[in-house]
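User: Last request for today: this protein with ME8, please.
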Amino acid sequence: MVKYVTTPIYYVNDIPHIGHAYTTILCDMFKRYQTIKGNECLLLTGTDEHGQKIENSAKLRDKTPKEYTDEVSFKFQNLWNKFDIAYDYFVRTTNESHDSGVKRAFEEMYKNGDIYKGYYEGHYCISCETFFTKRQLVDDYFCPDCGKETNPLKEESYFFRLSKYEKKLLEWYNENPNIIMPLHKRNEVIKFVEGGLSDLSITRSGFKWGISLPPFIDDNKHIMYVWLDALLSYITPLGYGNDIPNKMYLFNDATHFVGKDILRFHAVYWPAFLMSLKLPLPKQIYTHGWWTIDGVKMSKSIGNVVNPDDIVNMYGLEVMRYFLIREVPFGQDGDFSHKALVDRANSDLSDTLGNLVNRLLGMSDKYFDLNLECENFDYLKNEIEQVSSIIRSLEIYMVNMMPHRYLEELWKIFDIANVSITKYAPWEMMKIGKVDDVKSLLVFISNILSKGALLIYPILPHTAREMMKCLKVDFSLYNKLIENDELLNKFTLTKIPPLFPKLEAQIIINRVEEKIDLKDEINISQFDKIDIRVGRIIEALDVKDSNKLLILKIDFGVNIGIKQIVSGIAKYYSPNDLKNILVCAIINLKPTKFMGILSEGMVLSTKDSKGMLRLVSVCDVEVGSKVG
Ligand code: ME8
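Assistant: Here's the final one, the structure of the complex with ME8:
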């Protein structure tokens, strides 16, 4: 059966970040793994372009939603092209075919008695495009998912009878225990559903940027809820409800990759919608964790959002892919740091793999003019057995979505090759005329690298191809070398440039700091929206469990009062240095939370010539004075 794998479709309210790259690379890895196993697999990605958040982002930039979404959607598509993501579908929720598919689904659910009109009263989080009850809020005010401010709202709405599907969903989880992975995430979902499902509001009326309801319902006050719209993007490109050639059969074997924050939408709402539409349910929902940056949540106000394009320009695509997949167990949160990336690349990619290829090429060239052939591998029996047993163990790690373990184990075959070079010292064997034994060793190492190239292909496709070019092997050998565990006894090697030259951590990290990141042009009215004031720090406090953040209490004078701002400056200032300093801060940023602590603005800072962060400070100015 043909497999179908999907990334979430990304909101276009901002440019792609490392979290988006992570999910997309995981899906690309999944597809490539299926491909080398001989299974056809199609990959869908795309952009989620409706909703209030996007409408607001466009307004902020003085653009129409369409102009703005076109611009950001192309940025995503260009980036995935540059990253050589093997996607087959790039869906945009502003496509006409998607629009008609969503309308058809609404009509179908309505006909099946699953949609009715009522009133919704609750608190709405624009950032998550989700309603919450007062009970679910943090401190009666903040979104339980993202920590941002919510707005009270009562509005007429159409509802989907989610409650009707409670029992069916629980049966589905029970009958298919491995659908939601990792398993602890499955348990969270089951608990949520067992807690009782309320019907789901699936239309909105306070804004216009969304798909209108189907004509039969004759109600233009409402537009579709962005999550109903977005989830259906997994099937509209397959021809659901529109005139695109019908490939709905692909949905018989669908795998979704999602971040932990959007699991509920995929594991509860989506299957319920599919049940209502009488369509097949997903076969697999893989849930990954979140990337933090140097231990802190990525956030524009802290200014620590990692742009994957910068990472690729600095270190190369394959290094980023390897780091993201190898560094953190799938399903857990992970920390991104330049140092960790450089260390990982240098030890695994340069020292172990790159060096092995170099050693093989060096010796084969010197002793045998790059032509290797051997009679037998008798004295390498133990090593051969170890390599076979490692390769036999690998599949389980991919099936259980543990790609970091897959790589960890796979790297052991390269270690075996490196160790056997040191152990048998071919240069010594050459001195005493054991030419055939040296040939056997080099052919054995060529076999390890050939098998390795095929097996790293899903994660490092370009490196795999380079290695195959060097070894003159290709994908048609997969069955022979991997499934049947055979060895080739002849190789004609081709020299290739060193695979992973060592990265110099300090140079790279300085380059990161130096990068000039010019922003898009804005006009004066956009700048005028930013309220920057002078304030005096009256207290600075450490944040428990964080070596990055400080809590600053800042006095902005009688009219504005005292505000609490969380700032990522702990590495550069100790709380005692900060008392009474006059700083400049943006005070009209939406309040947010860092590590559960409310932050009501952002202090301005810059970096000195040594890359040390410095607060922007002023002298002899009244607190509360406007900066601009
Ligand atoms: O949620 N680390 O879109 P999105 C890892 N449009 N992953 C992260 C992350 C981080 N720091 N930040 C975000 C949406 N993500 C919806 C999806 S699907 C029908 C609709 C992940 O652009 C996040 O977990 O906000 C999610 O899986 C994905 O990026 C898209 O987030």
